[in-house]
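RETRY 2/3 - previous attempt timed out on the joint model. Re-submitting the same 582-residue input unchanged.
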Amino acid sequence: MDYLKIIKQGLLTTIQDYGRYGFQKYGVTPSGAMDVESMEIANIIAGNKRDEAVLEMTYVGDEILFNVNTVIAITGADMNPLLNNKRLDMYERININKGDVLKFSYAKNGLRTYLSVYGGFKINKIMNSKSTYTKYNIGGYKGRKLKKGDILYINEINVRSDKIENINIQNNIKKPEYIRVIEGPDFDSFNEKSKQSFFENEYEITDQSDRMGYRLKGEKIFHKEGPDIISRGLPIGAIQVSGDNQPIIMLSDRQTIGGYTVIGVVVTVDINKLAQMKPGDKIKFKKISLKSAQKLIKNEKDSINKLENYLIDKKIYKVHDIKNFEIKVNGEKFNVSVVKK
Amino acid sequence: MINYKPYGDSGLLIEIGNEISDEINDKVLTFTNLIENELGSSIVETIPAYNSVLIIYDTLELNYDDLLSKVKSLEENISVINKSKNRIVHIPTVYGGEYGEDLKIVADYNGLRKEEVIDIHSSTLYRVYMLGFTPGFPYLGGMSKKIATPRKKTPRKQIEKGSVGIGGNQTGIYSTNSPGGWQIIGRSPLEFFDIKKAKSLINPGDFLKFESVDENEYYRLKKLVEKESYIIKTSVLEDNF
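RETRY 2/3 succeeded.
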């Protein structure tokens, strides 16, 4: 039996990949990792394809028992990961021995932490994705967040990696100076003063914020006429302004259709930054052009490709047998594994 | 008449006119089909709505200007293509009782008898303009104002899938179990959205015809649906409708 088991549950831990695309015409929400960049990096470091499903932990992480010899990587917010009570490096490829306990506490910076396991979880795809949409219990593990006692089976067992030096990616989670947006399709439906003040004032993320969207609070935004439009498709990052004159940013678990005016759309690469911000944090928006936004996507993809190329010959290999021992030195316990190649 | 706008760095919004009408929605659906057939492999997906189509694309595969010119080149074909005839999909529904607990509220609010509400609701053809909000939820048009009823002040925590409701001037079907604030007047045994097959029973452009059935028929049909041997009843909407 080769699995990992949740022995203490976090606040909101779900299985996520890129999300469920191609079904929004039926009203199916895409879901998917909130910080896609951290998810991709976790996968690449762990030796996976970048779209493999990972665990997304939110603010408070889980305690996980590994009943498997495997390889993992952790990225995103720093939840002080401890492996058998010893601090573990993030953004590194880690060999895990059967019996190891990985314990996360709460996010010291950022909000969401990603755990990738080599080979991925043995979970059926629903509509081409393993992502969890908890609201309608679609995908992931039983369509819900993980709870104490849940067991996730893993596709690859008895794997090992040699230590890799100089993985040149560090936890880069810090409060961004700006969240960049391009003008929304209804930008001219707002009054001239609001079209300016939206970019001049700070907006605070309220506690009515979740994977569906972030509700913000700040200087009121006024429409020329009213807040309603004929309902239409709603992309990720759309900043809707309803009758309460406050912005709400639509995120991974958004509904597919929206009926309110959209003043701007957060650019793709800054969705990842937003996903690491939490209630109480303040946002200042900055307008950029469509061309600049698309250039940012290209740059981010280039740096992820570079990481993938660097790791391409650092293969993970299968071993025939791994024996794990627990030894005591001066009363302190250590896990030691012996590998037969 | 047709308006193109970027919608975020990975979206192209196409707006056709500025109102809700069958004619415009037909154009939306024809255009969406054209886009899916001609450009399907180079875009991520389309979201057709009342009077718009949102195309989601991957800017690393296709840049905005190229996408825009490709889409625009399809525009002239919209009027050339013969519109396929709309389907009428028959929706067996048991009204009232435990299946439609709010039938009396709707009747009382409008000064009607329960039977009259059922007659009005089941004698109208409702156009499906789009699917959204929840998986397989149809946005319907055409309900008689005679049975319009405000939503509940406090939404129900759980509404059984298949429930038929009225919310203000609209009627709709809860395609999945979900919370909701509409007045529930009945329930259909049909499976509106199959998550495993990603298949919706009804599609934009269809017209729905609710048919009042009794409890026994409801359970007979429900069993057929569960065995996947129910065949939906459809007919063709004639042009002179």
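Chain B touches chain A through 47 residues (CB under 8 Å). Closing ticket.
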